[in-house]
Design a protein that fits this description.
The complex is a heterotrimer of chains A (about 325), B (about 270) and C (about 400).
Chain A lengths: L1 H8 L5 H44 L17 H8 L1 H33 L5 H9 L6 H22 L16 H25 L4 H9 L4 H29 L3 H6 L11 H11 L3 H32 L1
Helix pairs in contact in A: 1-2, 3-12, 4-7, 4-9, 6-7, 7-9, 9-12, 11-12
Chain B lengths: L6 H26 L2 H6 L11 H10 L1 H31 L5 H12 L5 H14 L5 H24 L5 H8 L4 H12 L1 H17 L2 H6 L8 H7 L1 H4 L3 H35 L1
Helix pairs in contact in B: 1-14, 3-14, 4-5, 4-7, 4-10, 5-7, 7-10, 8-9, 10-14
Chain C lengths: L1 H22 L6 E2 L2 E8 L5 H14 L3 E6 L4 H11 L5 E3 L4 H8 L17 H11 L6 E6 L3 E5 H6 L8 H13 L3 E3 L10 H11 L4 H6 L5 H4 L1 H11 L11 H9 L3 E4 L5 H8 L5 E5 L11 E2 L2 E7 L6 H11 L2 H11 L2 E2 L12 H9 L2 E2 L12 H11 L2 H18 L1
Parallel strand pairs in C: 2-3, 2-4, 7-8, 10-13
Antiparallel strand pairs in C: 1-2, 4-11, 5-11, 5-12, 6-8, 6-9
Chain lengths: ~325, ~270, ~400
């Protein structure tokens, strides 16, 4: 583009020449930008959007995944979805789980973050410890806790005569979900703690001291100084925690297989087992579509509500 | 300035960290015992270190093969992701004023909300039809799927880089590509660290995608192998835990050395 | 720009190399002149036995390479592979719903006229026909299993107990054991599938002779006919142990092997696992006394392992050779001895004294197939049973099985 440079840099170039050169440069530049972005978009479409569309297509058929042919059945799968108790139960379980998980993860990680932000000894060491669970494989953590719940805790319960510990919580239809919740919280807090911590650290300590001198107590300091600053982090953490909780899968594979019965069968677990093993490929694809709509709706709702609160603060 | 340590909080934090470390201690303890010692007590300190659990686990699960697979997938995913996703994000970030690019941005980011199960079933058939139900296909999928989150992170960061730097480079005769590689990419180091770490963790620990995409059991990754061998382990928990520890070890070792860096990277990315 | 292009080229190259690496293991490919056959099966516990037999086969056939593949959840994996169009040469699963579905999907070669079937006992060939509802045979039955009641001979001797022949005797026996402070059955309810062996034994003997006939006509009678079986499952759940909801199959095998209970409700496939945990245990198996009419009780026995030949195999001749090899008397015998199974082939007896009590019935032909082989996928009777033994609600369980079954039927 040397010639264009000459034209552009030459104060004697005519306006027309200047314009043309500039346009050429712009086009070359735009070309580059297009080349940077379009291929990626195409790949993304091919491997993400297209399968999603296929999934939607299959949801209108009765294909079981392996037969050589299938029929178009319109909305039959969707109607059956609403009548199906297994689907309904999985949504109820997943929502219950997500709400508890979202709230608990946030409260616990905020508490830990505040603790880590205070003047404690060995802060860096503890910070490293709390983040450790995040780098471990979710599945393996599930296996480890499976053993803890199945063998270690009942043994401890027997030894020390603590009645309610003597049974495997994962085998109890009413309490199994708590087992999964505990493991989920154990691992998810790590990331949220770090996020909250980084938010807390943006608050200058002088603010606390000044307000302390003015007579504000701890609670007031928290609400008036800390909370407004971490409000955006609160939003993000809530959205992320709930989204992850709604997609809970690995722990269920490792610990309960969806049971006892079907009480800990999450939506994604049902789609996987029903769709691939259960021969309900098309039906579960419809389930997947509904699931997607639900997640988007919830996330958008959360963002709107929480961001409004942020603004109001 | 009060410098005195806040002991109550320290103790509270310390207790919490015990809750974190106990499962790991248990894993190590069980992996080093043999069945009788385990039957006596799971929590006591291992007295005899039964290293043979580890050697047996290596043999049974074909550890080094799975380790190789996980490494290949993670490293290639990391390299391609850092190179390509940042490039795409740059293209978008510098053109947010144009409708096409802005829409592409929303298009990529919206994928964060699409739960994997909805594409899981079709992608299984698709990768197979295209001959991609193998390691290469897995890497491709990680790079492509990563775009949703990474473009979100990169664009946020790139937009904070003053455009004067690029304009100076252009005046010096740099092409747009050159601007990216010579000016922008070096500046992306901190955010590359963030994206790199997140990508690494994801690719190494992921279970579901290898489970459904890979057909050949010889290509299994470390987490997948743990699942596959559950029945092999049977009731030999010492063997199982030895295997779990070895599977987690690589990431833990990296973490021990680089934790400050890793956490820092995550924090910076988060703030953006 | 140049840098980008070369970078791109390098990446494309490396991906294609990787693709080459990854798919180099594809079944049926011929490397260095040898024919590679993929033998896919669901019997992980038999992998060692197969290793030995494969070695023997490869010695006799140096130009054929057999590769075993036995992932967990093989039933699901094979279906996934079918939907991907990526089929192993030989597929060995049980004679269950999976076999039915795969046959209907055209996965197997039709073997109805094949000579190889002449070696198989007619009862098992009939089972395959019953499951698919077709006259065509798509696989060779090889091994049969059986469900009985595994019992610890030492404990029985200690308490002076005799093998029960009727349901009432069975319950009374369990009472006696419980009163003596021992555990009658080591239930492993955390693994839903372990409830199926006993359920099968009960249902097969109490569901009525025309159950399958009605089913073929489209009449689902589960809700009514399973009542006795479900009620008896509840009875059995009373004679377990404190942590029965929280214990899984593997732990159950170890516990029973260590003498923690007098009896164990599992199929004979569990015996090798039990012996691994305690080689010295003295055990036996008696027929499951499902009703009070001992003469009418049938032993549940199904096709535990069959050999299916993929319709899309690139090397059908070599694959066939391996199947014929496995069917040879001495090889079939080796398999059933090491795996504690019964042979589906004519003239091969299982001599192991542990299962002697069952042998009589097997030889009489008083066998019947697993009812759950006829329950369509998607009904999950094991999960319903898992809930049943916890809340003891018989009606709820029956209703659920009936409803789920109808729901799956109506989807077809």
């Amino acid at each position: 583009m040397k010639s264009d440079q000459l034209i552009l840099n030459n104060p004697q170039s005519s306006p027309a020449d200047l314009a043309k050169s500039k346009k050429k440069k712009m086009n070359a530049k735009m070309m580059a930008y297009y080349l940077m972005v379009i291929p990626a978009a195409l790949l993304f479409f091919a491997f993400h959007t297209f399968p999603a569309i296929q999934g939607i297509y299959y949801s209108f058929t009765n294909w079981n995944g392996i037969n050589l042919d299938y029929d178009f059945v319109g909305f039959k799968n969707y109607i059956n979805l609403f009548k199906d108790t297994a689907v309904r139960d999985s949504y109820l379980f997943t929502f219950k789980f997500a709400i508890f998980a979202g709230v608990l993860v946030n409260i616990i990680s905020l508490a830990v973050a505040i603790g880590l932000n205070a003047k404690i000894k060995g802060r860096n060491f503890f910070r490293a410890v709390y983040f450790l669970p995040n780098i471990l494989s979710v599945l393996i953590v599930g296996f480890i806790f499976n053993f803890v719940f199945t063998s270690i805790i009942p043994n401890l319960g027997e030894k020390y005569q603590i009645e309610f510990l003597t049974e495997n919580i994962l085998g109890n239809a009413n309490l199994a979900w708590i087992g999964i919740l505990i493991v989920f919280i154990w691992q998810s807090c790590a990331f949220n703690v770090i996020l909250y911590l980084s938010g807390l650290q943006t608050v200058p300590t002088e603010l606390y001291e000044a307000s302390g001198l003015d007579g504000a107590n701890r609670w007031q300091q928290f609400w008036k100084i800390t909370f407004p600053v971490i409000a955006p982090f609160f939003t993000i953490n809530m959205v992320l925690a709930m989204k992850n909780a709604l997609m809970v899968f690995d722990q269920i594979v490792a610990m309960t297989g969806g049971g006892p019965g079907t009480v800990t069968t999450s939506i994604s677990y049902l789609i996987y087992t029903g769709g691939l093993a259960g021969g309900e490929f098309a039906f579960q694809s419809a389930n997947g579509v509904i699931y997607f709509i639900v997640i988007v709706a919830i996330s958008v709702f959360q963002l709107k509500v929480l961001q409004k609160r942020e603004m109001d603060m | 300035m009060r410098e005195r340590t806040n002991w109550p909080v320290t103790i509270f934090i310390a207790l919490g960290s015990v809750a974190i470390l106990i499962p790991l201690y248990i894993s190590i303890s069980i992996a080093l015992k043999n069945p009788q010692e385990l039957a006596e007590s799971a929590l006591s300190l291992p007295l005899n270190f039964h290293w043979e659990n580890f050697t047996k686990a290596i043999e049974v699960t074909n550890f080094f093969n799975a380790f190789k697979n996980s490494s290949i997938i993670t490293i290639f995913t990391l390299v391609f992701t850092l190179l390509t996703n940042s490039l795409v994000a740059y293209g978008i970030a510098r053109n947010m004023h144009r409708k096409l690019f802005r829409n592409l941005y929303y298009y990529f980011v919206s994928a964060l909300f699409i739960p994997f199960p909805i594409i899981m079933l079709p992608i299984v058939k698709q990768t197979s039809a295209l001959g991609l139900n193998n390691t290469a296909g897995l890497i491709l999928l990680y790079v492509v799927y990563g775009m949703a989150m990474n473009i979100f992170i990169y664009v946020g960061y790139i937009r904070s880089i003053p455009i004067e730097l690029e304009e100076a480079a252009i005046v010096d005769g740099c092409s747009t590509w050159g601007v990216f590689w010579k000016v922008i990419f070096p500046l992306l180091t901190p955010i590359n660290a963030t994206v790199g770490i997140l990508t690494c963790l994801w690719a190494w620990n992921d279970f579901l995608l290898p489970l459904v995409i890979l057909s050949d059991s010889a290509a299994a990754t470390l987490p997948l192998v743990q699942y596959v061998f559950q029945t092999e382990f049977g009731a030999d928990y010492n063997l199982a835990f030895a295997s779990y520890l070895m599977a987690m070890a690589p990431m833990v070792i990296v973490y021990l050395f680089a934790q400050k860096w890793i956490i820092g990277g995550v924090v910076k990315g988060a703030i953006k | 720009m140049k840098k980008t292009v070369s970078l791109l080229a390098a990446s494309v190259l490396s991906i294609s190399l990787l693709a080459g690496c990854g798919s180099g293991e594809n079944a049926g490919g011929a490397d260095n002149g040898k024919v590679k056959i993929e033998f896919f099966h669901y019997k992980r516990e038999a992998m060692d036995t197969f290793d030995k037999l494969i070695e023997k086969f490869e010695k006799e056939n140096p130009n054929i390479d057999i590769e075993q593949a036995s992932p967990p959840d093989a039933g699901t994996v094979i279906k996934t592979r079918v939907s991907k169009g990526d089929l192993p040469d030989i597929i060995s699963i049980g004679g269950d719903m999976g076999y039915n579905e795969l046959s209907k999907a055209g996965v197997f070669t039709d073997l109805s006229k094949d000579k190889v079937l002449e070696k198989v006992q007619p009862a098992y060939i009939q089972m395959l026909k019953d499951i698919t509802g077709q006259e065509k045979i798509y696989a060779v039955p090889f091994a049969a299993n059986a469900v009985g009641v595994i019992y610890n001979k030492a404990i029985f001797n200690e308490l002076g107990l005799e093998v029960p022949k009727t349901w009432d005797e069975f319950v009374a026996l369990s009472e006696t054991i419980q009163k003596a402070g021992k555990i009658p059955f080591y239930h492993t309810y955390k693994d839903a599938w372990t409830l199926l062996p006993s359920f099968n034994a009960l249902a097969a003997n109490t569901q009525g002779a025309d159950f399958y006939e009605q089913l073929n006509k489209g009449e689902v009678l589960a809700g009514k006919r399973y009542k006795e079986a479900v009620e008896k499952m509840v009875v059995l759940s009373k004679y377990g142990h404190k942590n029965q909801q929280g214990v899984a199959y593997n732990d159950g095998n170890t516990a029973f092997a260590n003498g923690e209970s007098a009896m164990y409700l599992q199929g004979i496939w569990a015996i090798p696992e039990i012996k691994k945990a305690n080689p010295d245990i003295e055990l036996g198996v008696f027929p499951f006394p499902a009703t009070n009419n001992p003469d009418e009780i049938k032993v549940i026995s199904g096709v535990d392992l069959l050999y299916g030949l993929s319709a899309k195999s690139e090397h059908p001749k070599e694959a066939k050779k391996f199947i014929e090899f496995m069917l040879q008397d001495e090889n079939a015998k080796q398999y059933i001895e090491e795996q504690n199974a019964f042979s589906a082939l004519k003239g091969i007896a299982q001599d192991n004294p542990t299962v002697a009590d069952l042998n009589v019935m097997m030889e009489n032909g008083s066998v019947t197939d697993f009812p759950d082989h006829y329950i369509p996928t998607g009904v999950y009777p094991d999960k319903t049973l898992q809930t049943l033994v916890q809340d003891k609600d018989v009606d709820a369980a029956l209703e659920k099985i009936q409803k789920d079954w109808e729901k799956v039927q109506s989807r077809k």
